[in-house]
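User: Modeling request: complex.
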Amino acid sequence: MANKGTGERLTRSEHELIDRDAVIEFEFEGRRVSAYQGDTVGSAVTAVGMDILSRSFKYHRPRGMLCAAGNCPNCLMTVDGIPNVRSCTMQVQPGMKVKRQNAWPSVDHDIGSLLDRMDRLLPVGFYYKAFHKPKFLWDIMRPIVRRIAGLGKIDISSDGGPRYSHRNMQADVAVIGGGPAGMAAALEAADAGLDVVLIDDQPALGGHLLSDTARYEGIEGVGDGTGQEIADSLRGRVVAQSGIRVLSGASAFGYYQDNLIAVRQGLESIQLRAGRVVMATGAFEVPFQFENNDRPGVMLASGALRMARLYRVPPGKRALVVTDNDGGYSSALNLIDAGLEIAALVDLRSDAGTSDVGDAVRKAGIEVLAGYRVVSASGKKRVSWVKVMAPDSSTRVLKCDLVCMAGVPQPANGLLLQQPGVEVEYDEQLRESVPARLPGTVFTAGDINGFHDLGIVFGQGVAAGRKAAGVADDGSSQLSALEGEYRNGLRLSGDSASGGSAKKEFVCLCEDVSTKDIGVAIREGFGDIQTLKRYTTSTMGPCQGKMCHKAFVEATAIHTGGTIAATGATTARPPAQGVPLGALAGPGHMPLKRTPLDAVHRAAGAEMVELGPWLRAHNYGSPQDEALTVRERVGIIDVSTLGKLDVRGADAGKLLDKVYTHRFSNLKEGRIRYGLLCGENGVIMDDGTVTRLSEDHYFVSTTTGNVDAIEDWFNWWLAGTGMDVFVTNVTSAYGAINVAGPRARETLSKLTDVDLSSDAFGYMRSFSGAVAGVPCIFLRIGFVGETGWELHFPSEYAEHLWKALMEAGAEYGIGPFGLEAQRILRLEKGHIIVSQDTDAATDPLDAGMRWAVRFDKPDFIGRAGLAANRKRESEEKLVGFVMRGDFVPEDGQPIVESGVPIGRVTSSRLSPTLKKGFGLGWVPEKLAEEGAEILIRSGDKDWPAVVATEPIYDPKGERLRN
Amino acid sequence: MAFLLNCPNCGQRNVYDFRFGGEVLTRPQPDVSNEDLTEYLFFRENADGPQREWWNHNMGCRKWFIAVRNTHTNEVIETAWSPELEWPPIQANDGGQADGE
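Assistant: Request completed. Predicted assembly structure:
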């Protein structure tokens, strides 16, 4: 296809969506194609004469433009690497790269279309029955079937594609559907002072009026004019009403409980919570069933009109109109107005009666074939003639390049039905499933209710808007009269349009299911509509039943001999419209926390690492050197990320006794005790220190990242007890610095009046006082195993305090140490890190912390679980080990015996003091003895190590207590 | 799960703002038998209908409260602070009362 300019177009119209002054180019299968600004990919390629837009799922049949509204599967293409984009609604952007899919070597000449003649090999449900005997055949066929079937291919080399974002919205009233009913409802609700969001999936508000040139007069609240003029005037009023926020080109794909609406608009995914909802989603025309009803050139009348009116692309030259209601006559008149020749109008009804539109059509010289039915369409790549059958069974052939199907529409209720409490019932008179029961906050208006008359549609919109706004509706009786009149005037065919059983008359275009397939499946025993759906996969393709649900139910009813009401319906589930997984996933919104010393660490060249929600300094260049600084001189580390809970009240001790395994009600003021938190099953949840600051005031630390869960845990055990305790999370309010090492006392003494001598300030004691003028809580604890103080202070002072400590310690060789050095140092002391050295099954007894559990307390959380565990034999113990050679194992490597794993390393590092690999690991009980020999496997080599039950550094804690 | 939940402190909010705390259970005595402990730890009523459950307004006031929710329809029938919500088959509340302290 050479660049033919912007292709064939109809004369300019003031209602067209294209801008003829702006020509843009895009790439289509390697060739450049021109389009107007406002064109969709589908309209642009149709304008340059392309009939085949895609190949079908199973038989690779050629498929062309059908609905032109983003509902059917026929125009799915790959756009900029994203598969299965509906090209009929995707607006052309300059430079866009588009290709068709599911064909080889090309969509125009697809080898796969041979399958169309081999349909006997691929019966309905073939997945369950063909190619299974002999057994090996399926292994050969499965990859071939999977390759041939399916739609677009995901580009796995892509860099992730577009970046989607998420947004939350609230509204008093959400109106879904921007046609006349939706606009009327939005205007009424907004005029009543409510905050309204109007969601519409088309590029411009107006719904079907956008392509309607029929003239309307005397409709209350609507000025006289053509459909297009009325759309313009309503759109103008909506835009001028500041109480309405319009989301155009936005598809509402999910409708969840309590009126939560999931909307996708471009690269944004919106969650809209509305107080009231007006569903004005309209109705879809759907295909009739006849042989080759999927041939390019067979279109919905509304689709043909959209192409002609919105993009001024002629959908064909000579159209055959097929209808079963008066609406088809209006469509025929509209098509004539758009410049098309009408071959004839086939009215499927045997008794169409007379009507104004009927007279108008006959007056325009169009032959009406009443009581005829369509037998088949013919033409290799596009329809060229159609065979019709008269009531007397004589047949006629009509030449045409376009078939416009204008049947009784299928209500667009796929979204509405997702809401709990919504029920629809089949209305025998309207011949549609219409809302029967709605929750009190949900209202419907327009074509979705089964009425296809502008006056009624608009009136229902007004009424729904008023109801949603809680305004008394005085127009109801007038509207009921109009509705009654409409019902009486209906002359719908009693015969179904889908009576055939031909092989290639399709019910479900997405999955290539024919009326014959449905008959076969029912004979095979799948008579229930839900199982029939799953077996045939009807309604399960990209259109999600939009094009096929009505025909599927009708065909099922005919083959089972049941009524349409008794046949029921398939279940509507989100998404109502396809939505990219990326739009659902969106960006991560995990907030990253920085400590008050973040800038200091960066200035010192620290390598930062994410730990839970925090960014921490991992090291400042050499963890080994940093560890030695602490062992030999003095180091400081930012421990602001520690969880900190302020627990106060007369019953604070009682709460802590309940949640911790240890006892805290008897802790003296100014003393600190290590605490273990267990779940009810006795498994270790968290650990930390508990300091009693005063009689009814405790200061609790938790591990980094766990504090929110622990705060919840404390409050949960408080809820409803009436205990006098307040738990306040002060994690970010307090900064914390640990000063540790043999010269820590000298360093700190320069900055404080607090007596730090070992007699006055012993191990596990706490005082309050100022350091460099900053009010601090001093905790004398020793995670890293040296003399040291953890200082907690208002976080605003962190930089000042850090700087003061660095200056004071300069003469002693002070240095900062990071997370990695701290991990090495604590490991030398055998201090565990919960969830690194413990797992979801570790209790304090196995972890060697029996000393932290007070069974003499009458109760605590986990007591019953631990008591039960105490009775059974422990299988594994957590022990230390030191390597024999110079190998340093990695965290998680297996401990083996005769090549079989019997345990695992939980933490392992190079010890800066021993200059050897060492660590903690789980071993069987029998090996949990000092000096026991174990083997650690790395790759295919086993490395010997010796079990050490005591910490390898300062086992008696003399340096710690000094 | 998209329903609205009425926090007794903050009012109606998206359920995403809350943390689910599970069925309201009666905590056994510390000398409970192994069978009853197993029952308490691992078995749930999983009612198909109204159920009493804990919720925490995690992204709001961070308080725990009790909701009666119909698990079949997701309808939240009532919310209240523990132990104000009457519920004949289950004792008022576990936290700290059943443990004999």
